[in-house]
Write a structure and sequence with these properties.
Oligomer: single chain
Structural class: mainly alpha
Distance between the termini: 44 Å
Helix content: over 70%
Radius of gyration: 21 Å
Number of strands: 0
Number of helices: 8
Strand content: under 5%
Order of helices and strands: HHHHHHHH
C-alpha cells in the first residue's frame, strides 16, 4: 500500500543491477528500509562535514546545525525546563530523521521512508516505551497514579480510559505522519503523470513546508508526552 510507483524507484533499480532481487524482480530489501539507509547515510555525511572542522565562529554546515539544534533545544527547555535535557537528544534525532525522510520523497525516483507504516510505528513505539520507562524511573510505584486518577473510587473507570489513551498515542503518531506523507507522494505522482516536470515545481515549496510541519508535530507531541511523564500525578 505504501509503495508508490515501484518501477521508477532508483534504489530498486540499483538492487536489480546488483542482482539483489527475487525471481519476480523485486528487491530483497524492502523499499522503506532501502530509503531509510539512504537517509542515514546522508545524515552521517552531513554530520561529519559539519563537525570535522569545528570553530568558535561557526560557518557553513556547522552554522546550519547549530542554528537548528540550538533553536530546538531552546524550545524544549522553555517548555520542559531543565529536565528537557534528558530527552532532547532523542527528540532532536527524531526530528532531523523524520525531516530528511520526508524530504527524500520529494525527489523523483525516491520514496519517503515515512510513507510506510513500519518506519513510523518503530519511531512511535520508541517514544511510547521510552517515556514510560522514564516515568517509572522518575516516580517509581507512584507512576501508576498517571493511570488511576486522583480519586480511589474512580479507578475502575479511569484505569481503562487512561490505558486506552496511552495506547492511542503511538497509533496517533504513526497514522498521522503516514497519512500525510503517503498522500503527498500520491499527489506528486499524479502531478508527474499529468503535467510537465516544470509545472510541478511550485508545489515543492508547499510540500517542503508541509514536510517540515509534520516533522515538528511528531517532535512536539513526543515532547508533550515526555513532559506529562515527568509531572507529578494528582
Amino acid at each position: 500500500m505504501s509503495e508508490v510507483a515501484p518501477h521508477v524507484l532508483l534504489l530498486e533499480k540499483l538492487m536489480d543491477v546488483l542482482g539483489l532481487v527475487d525471481k519476480h524482480g523485486h528487491s530483497l530489501v524492502p523499499q522503506h528500509i532501502l530509503y531509510t539507509w539512504l537517509v542515514m547515510l546522508i545524515l552521517i555525511c552531513l554530520a561529519w562535514l559539519g563537525t570535522r572542522r569545528l570553530s568558535m565562529v561557526p560557518r557553513g554546515l556547522q552554522n546550519f546545525w547549530e542554528i537548528i539544534v540550538g533553536g530546538m533545544e531552546d524550545f524544549v527547555y522553555e517548555n520542559m525546563g531543565p529536565v528537557g535535557a534528558r530527552v532532547f537528544p532523542l527528540l532532536m534525532t527524531l526530528f532531523i530523521f523524520i525531516l530528511f525522510c520526508n524530504f527524500i520523497g520529494l525527489f523523483p525516483g525516491c520514496n519517503a521512508p515515512t510513507a510506510n507504516l513500519n518506519t513510523n510505528a518503530a519511531m512511535a513505539l520508541t517514544v511510547f516505551v521510552w517515556y514510560n520507562i522514564l516515568g517509572i524511573k522518575e516516580h517509581g510505584v507512584k507512576y501508576i497514579k498517571h493511570f488511576t486518577g486522583p480519586i480511589a473510587w474512580l479507578i475502575p473507570l479511569m484505569l481503562p480510559i487512561e490505558i486506552l489513551s496511552h495506547l492511542a498515542r503511538p497509533l496517533s503518531l504513526t497514522v498521522r505522519l503516514f497519512g500525510n506523507i503517503f498522500g503527498e507522494e500520491l499527489v506528486l505522482l499524479l502531478f508527474f503523470m499529468l503535467l510537465p516536470v516544470i509545472a510541478t515545481l511550485p508545489i515543492y515549496f508547499l510540500y517542503g513546508l508541509a514536510d517540515t510541519i509534520q516533522a515538528f508535530i511528531f517532535f512536539m507531541l513526543s515532547m508533550i508526552y515526555f513532559k506529562m511523564t515527568f509531572e507529578e500525578a494528582h
